[in-house]
Amino acid sequence: MWGIVPAAGRGSRIQPLAFSKELLPVGSCIEDGVERPCAVSEYLVERMVCGGADKICFVISPGKSDIMEYFGASYGSTPIVYVVQQQPVGLCDAVFSAEPVIDCKAPVVIGLPDTVWFPENGLAALPDDVLSFLLFPVERPQFFDAVVLNGEHVREIQVKQANPASHWIWGAFKMPGHVFEELRLLWLARNRADEYFGTLVNAYLVQGGKAVAAKSGRAYVDVGTLHGYRAAMSLLEDVQGSSPPNGSGPAAAPRRRHGDHSLVNERGRM
Q1: Which of 5, 83, 215, 223 is 20 to 30 A from 69, alpha carbon to alpha carbon?
Q2: What is the pTM of this model?
């Protein structure tokens, strides 16, 4: 299974930084007996690997070579490849920039690298054979993509909409490879007009596509703002305070770990 990490964005909400926002230090782990800071994007990669991803694709912009320098060729034993999105023109464009390396016979999982969420194994709740979303409850869903359900089936995604009909937002999603290709072709047929993945999914549903969701998320923090950064640090202090972190470097097994993520908490972007 491929894990796609869209990391080409400018990070304008938390600038100025002297490095890519995906490398913002958030929390820490123990590597070879020494505590070290963790880049925020490590949390997503760790969750993807925990959820079954055996290959990671970072989508970066031409100016983000520091991400390659940080992660190198692998995360533990999981190989990493890099694809360049020439201009950061939205999530759909970033995700489908990975198409040249994606195997349409294998599942694909996608998440946002400037977020921290729990439980760590949340992606295990998503099936391999249908477009599916991992949902999290937040206090202010109008800042996110709120997912409206009919049972477990997705009825609509309300993209950053005032007064959304749901307080459940997607934090990651998964699909079989053939659905990835169907969505890519639909995006092209719509003249690449969809910046947000939610609007593309709504068009997919109108055409008869199917999507399901799992309300398995417990805590979700967007680290792309100063408020979110502080909330993430507070959440991780609580979690890591209950159990010492442990781990090893990205080029050795076992892969990096970030403690016992059993805390139940709810935080959203303010």
Answers
A1: 223
A2: 0.86
